[in-house]
Amino acid sequence: MTRIQKRNRKVILEAALEVFSANGFRGSTLEQIASAAGLSKPNLLYYYPSKEAIHLELLNGLMDTWLAPLRAMDPDGTPRDEIMRYMRLKLEMSQQMPRESRLFANEILQGAPRIGEGLSGDLKTLVDEKAAILRNWAEQGQIAPVDPYHLIFSIWALTQHYADFDVQVRAVLGEGHDPYTEAGKHLEMLFERLLTP
């Protein structure tokens, strides 16, 4: 692949991310993506055969990025430090990657038609592995007894909310508030209290 081809693919994916995160998969068209990329539709189709192909490439790349902080949870680390680091990384991702968060949320809300196998395969395997670590920490008394799966779900929900519902969060807080700084402090307090034996 030439340098120009790589650049054009990157431009298309960036444009598609913007369009899909704003309109969802069903509300997005190849014409919108091509326009946002500054390309003609035939030129876009040279690189990707369909809207589905673009969407799937974005989702597959996102899954790797999205799961990296969970993969990094170290079973030999200090339990509360590892969990709090994971929570902070997820909150940072919501702040730095809100479009990606909304892309993923839209896919899940539609029933995960393009990544369903990955959810019940690689994602489930990873979550099972980390849940076993969390359960072990709780059994050893290093953290309070918590349901490990629901702890992970809670971290996902409480961090990604700030990206997925950004308009609502900012409307309710009003001007002069930094949602992410305030959220970080609140979530640290919340999870610290939850995890203390």
Summarize the structure.
This protein is an all-alpha fold and 197 residues long. The chain has helices spanning 3-23, 30-37, 41-47, 51-71, 79-96, 98-109, 116-139, 148-164, 166-173, 179-195.
Q: What's the architecture of the largest domain, going by CATH?
A: Orthogonal Bundle
- Arithmetic mean pLDDT: 94
Instruction: Please give the alpha-carbon distance between the first and last residues.
Output: 55 Å
What is the strand content?
under 5%
CATH class of the largest domain: Mainly Alpha
Our count of helices gives: 10
CATH 4th-level superfamily of the largest domain: Tetracycline Repressor, domain 2
Helix content bin: over 70%
Major sheet description: none
Uncertain runs with pLDDT below 50, 5 residues or more?
none
Radius of gyration: 19 Å
Order of helices and strands: HHHHHHHHHH
Number of strands: 0
SSE-based structural type: mainly alpha
How many domains in all?
2
Q: How would you sum up this structure, described in words?
A:
Helix 5 (79-96) runs parallel beside helix 8 and helix 5 (79-96) runs antiparallel to helix 10 (179-195). The chain is mostly helical and 197 residues long. The protein is globular. The mean pLDDT is 94. The longest helix has 24 residues, at 116-139. It folds into 2 domains: 1-49, Arc Repressor Mutant, subunit A, CATH 1.10.10; 56-195, Tetracycline Repressor, domain 2 (Orthogonal Bundle), CATH 1.10.357.10. It has 10 helices and no strands.
